[in-house]
Amino acid sequence: MENAVVLREWFDRVDAAGTGNITSPQLQSALAVGNLDFPLSVVQQMIRMYDFDRNGTMSFEEFLALNKFLQKVQTVFSSLERGRGFLSLEDVYEALIKLSFSLDSPAFYTVCESFDKSKKGMVRLDEFISICIFVQSARNVFRDLSLSKYHVLNFTPNY
């Protein structure tokens, strides 16, 4: 419960206008304070992943869901980074498996290449989070497409 209180205080500071929602730029700035530098497009993707009411902003409840995801990703990162501050590509692959993401080799290397800013095979925490956000978002899109295809295929008109 203490964690929820701390998160509420953090959320309220970010929501300086007191609207009950935070925007992508607000979330981006708040994450940057914690040394997590994300392009606005990644922050927008974070919000879309948990924007249950589809209003383009993040409520506190939606933020809690995002925070749970980010904590899980950070825990896996920490378990594999061995004090180096980065993951090797082999570590990234193992971390994705631990997070229940499965990519074939071409997809894995394409994703890593896209998010490895230094191009040295050393993926920092913010890059790893970006990879996970991308992969989870892609998973959600394919799931939604699969569900909509299923509903179309099982459509029975009412005559």
TrEMBL record:
SUPFAM superfamilies, sorted: EF-hand (SSF47473)
Q: Does the keyword Cytoplasm apply?
A: yes
The reply on keyword Ribosomal protein is no
Question: What's the domain of life for this entry?
Answer: Eukaryota
| Places the protein is found | Cytoplasm
* InterPro entries, alphabetized: EF-hand-dom_pair (IPR011992), EF_Hand_1_Ca_BS (IPR018247), EF_hand_dom (IPR002048), Peflin/Sorcin_CaBP (IPR051426)
In what residue span(s) does the EF-hand domain sit? 38-73
UniProt keyword annotations, A-Z: Calcium, Cytoplasm, Metal-binding, Repeat
GO CC terms, sorted: cytoplasm
Q: What SMART domains does its record include?
A: EFh
- Predominant cellular place of this UniProt entry's protein: cytoplasm
For molecular function, the Gene Ontology terms on record are: calcium ion binding; calcium-dependent protein binding
Know the name of this protein? EF-hand domain-containing protein
Which species does this protein come from? Triticum turgidum subsp. durum
